[in-house]
Each structure stands twice: as C-alpha cells, then as structure tokens.
Amino acid sequence: MNNQNNKLGPLAGIRVIEVGQLLAGPFTGTILGYFGAEVIKVEPPKGGDPIRGWREVDAESGTSYWFRSLGRNKKSVTLDLRQERGQELLGKLIDTADVMVENFRPGVMEKWNLGPEQVKSRNPGLVYARISGFGQDGPYSKRPGYASVCEGMSGFRYVNGFPGQAPVRPNLSIGDTIAGIHAALGIVMALFAKERGNAQGQVIDVALYEAMFNLMEGVIPEFSGAGVVRGPSGTTVTGIVPTNTYRCADGKYVVIGGNGDSVFQRLMKAVGRPELGVDPRMANNAGRVEHERELDKILADWCLTYPSTEILQKLDERRVPGGPIYSVADMMEDEHFRARGMFEQVEIDGKKLEIPAILPKLSETPGQTNWPGGAVGSHNTEVLEGILGLSAEELSELDAAGVIG
Fold first, then answer.
1. 112 vs 67: CA distance, rounded Å
2. Are 353 and 65 in contact (CB under 8 A)?
3. Separation in Å, CA 360 to CA 16, 180, 182, 357, 366
4. Residue 8 pLDDT
5. Beta-ladder partners of 354
6. How far apart, in whole angstroms, are the C-alpha atoms of residue 241 and residue 236?
7. At 20, is the pLDDT very low, low, confident or very high (cuts 50, 70, 90)?
8. Which fold has domain 243-247+253-324?
9. Catalytic positions, please?
10. Coil, strand or helix: which one is 383?
11. I want to staple 12 with a disulfide (CB 3.0 to 4.6 A). Which of 36, 62, 145, 334 is the partner?
12. What CATH number labels 15-215+340-400?
C-alpha cells in the first residue's frame, strides 16, 4: 500500500465524481479507483455515506470495516446537496470530470439542474453513469428500487431455494454489487468509444433488476421456445446431473460436479461404482437427469461414509471437480487464496486490517489499494482548493453555512 494514485493503472488520468450512497454507485467507484482513476466521493456533511455505520463498526473510529474496503482510493468531499451552493459546487466538480456516477432516484439530479442534458453543454465528453432500481424511464422508473426488491422482480429470486418453500436470498446485497459491475463495464466501454472517436460523452443507464436479469442464462429462451418455467431446485441445478452439495462424515459439506460424460465415469470409479460409469442409461446428461434421484442417493451415502478431506482427496485423485463450502475464516486460512493475493493489508491508526482485492487481475496494468476509506471530508481542502480554486476564507464560509461541515 502507498499513498499515491495508481499511475500504472489502466484508468490513470481519469477523474470520476461519485455521488450516491450505500452500495451500487459506490462499488462502481471502488472498481474504477482500484484501477487507477481519481475518484472524488461526494458525501453529506453529517455522517457521510450511511454505509460508514453499517454492520461491524470499529469502536475507536466509529467507522465500519466495510467502508474501509468500499471507500478505498477515494477522496472524500462533503457537500450538502440540499443547498444551492452545494449543488453549484458539485456542478463545478462535474465540469472537470471524465466520468460521473450517481445512484439517486430518477429525477433527483435533474431537480438540481445537474442531469446529463443539463451539464452536456459544459462538458460534452462526460460519461454519465446512472444506477437505479428500475431504470431512468418506463412505468416503474419512479419506484424505490432496493436490491432485495429488484432481485425478486428480475427472476433471480424465483429460482433460488427449495420447491414449495419461500424463495431464498443470499446473505449479501448481490443486486447492488452486480449493478455496480455492469456500470463499471459500461463506463469503460464508453471511455473506449470516446478514445476511438466513435462518441463523445454518453449516458449509461443501469437498472438493478436488469443487471440481475442479465444473469438468467437460458431461462427466457426456454420459456419462449418450450414453455418451461424454471423454478427452484434446492442445492442442485435443473437439467445438469450430477452436481450437488453433500454432507460428509465430519459434518462438513462438499460440492461435487460430475456432469461431464468422461468426468462422470471417473466419479463413479471414485465412488466404487464403476459399472454405473459405463451404464448406457447414464451415458449422457439427458440419461443422468432421468436417474437423478438414484445418483444423488449414491453420492450422498458415499459422502456420509468419509470425512470431507478424504472425499475431496478421492475426487482429486480421479480429477473430478469438487470442493469444500468455505466460510470467511476458511478462505482466509487457505493457501491458494493467499498465493493468489486475494487479501490486501491496510493500516488504520496503527492497526492492520485485511480487505479483499478487486478483480480482475491484469498482468501489465494491475489495480491496487493505495489507502483505505478515510474520514468524512478528509479531502475537502485538496479538492475544493486544489481543483476548484476556492480560498481558505471561502472554505471557512462554506463550513459555517453547513455546506461542507
């Protein structure tokens, strides 16, 4: 870790203004900042981004451990956007930027005279990324769009869980994160189009429900072509056999993926049932789907006979895909995670903290963490004086008026 921007990153020299709270917009900014962009995060003066206080909080600083990761490499600037002066200063920051990221309710930026059409004349090359629950137009655009709601409407929640039971959600705000990845991808594509002279600035409209919809694989054409509504299938995947999660003799779970024809033969040898590997009924996936219950019971009984480590060793010897179900503690003890650099260490007031690396890995222009998420408004002077040219007296006045303090 160092205290300078990543000058080798592929986005070095790109200035990003991040306006929004919680997860989708800020995660977009995290990705861009990790790969070299200068990210200026605009936060409300009182308390900053609410995620600073979410979940586990460091007792000394009052800042969440999550924010140390999500706020990395960002310059925090405070502006009260309910005040005209705050809106005016944000507009001036946008005028200097290459990229704008916002995840407010549709219409909020226009109300502040800072929508894409309103700033286009001043900064025609701006790439303007907008993230919302249901998009900038359409009959649902004004609805509140939290990730949980959007995951449900996208079809994603419908296929999760067990038949006959309430749909299950992962214990993560996956809709926000997936939307952030889509926004970052759109931004990079727009910058590339601009670099090639195919466009000036453009607007990127990311909806959380559409980002999750993009994960639905063959669900749409299967319904359109065959009238099939894919539903939940517990720990299996519909139409692919065998692939499931099994409990072992030590109480731990393993995942086994033996659905390739040749892999299935090797799996049956590992299980001690080689005759099933050459059984014509199960020579291909379609046949194995018909006999899913039989195969599932064989694998479940086998796994209950041995501890998980022994099951995984037997699978590895036969080159059959298999692995454990890891908790965060397991991940952080695993030698492969460590060897691949999946954790990065930062220092906060003399205390060390590990945060996740941001993917993907680039061989020549890698991303990096330069500093963890810092205090609210910690870059006010650097940005407002250094970029906008405000004087110390003006900053003092803004502070007294509650615009920045």
1. 27
2. yes
3. 20, 14, 14, 9, 9
4. 81
5. 345
6. 8
7. confident
8. formyl-coa transferase, domain 3 (3.30.1540)
9. 176
10. helix
11. 36
12. 3.40.50.10540
